[in-house]
Amino acid sequence: MKTAPTTALTAGAALPPLEIPVTRTLIVAGAIASRDYQDVHHDAESARQKGSPDVFMNILTTNGLVGRYITDHFGPTAILRKVAIRLGAPNYPGDTMVLTGTIEAVDGETATVRVVGANALGSHVTGTVTVTVPAAPATTPDTEARS
Questions:
Q1: I need a labelling partner for 1 at 20 to 30 A (CA). Which of 13, 47, 77, 93 fits?
Q2: What CA–CA distance (Å, rounded) separates 44 from 56?
Q3: pLDDT single digits (tens) 34-87
């Protein structure tokens, strides 16, 4: 049986925050998974030579975490239609990024969610996600018994 989203699609509704510990492993694994072999994402000495205090998260990892935030909230039937983000302050190892979201607009089963991911330095990511959350099918005692 499909589950309904944890929050109705209501403009102005806030999503609960999600805290993501920013570890060196997360940064390096995200870079490898997205085939981003830039040394600033895995080699601390190279990052320092280029003016950064340490390795930092790439945009593709951030994009994936934003998508996870939305689908974790709205459930497995949620369909990401558009993710439009902009990076700000870097995510360095040892910090925590807190993702928050607010539903800005609703059109039927589709919502636009404003997302912000903040760390100790400020806003790491800002943007919007367009997500469709299909309505759960009506259930009757017969269909629940077969689930």
A1: 13
A2: 9
A3: 999 999 999 999 999 999 999 999 999 999 999 999 999 999 999 999 999 999
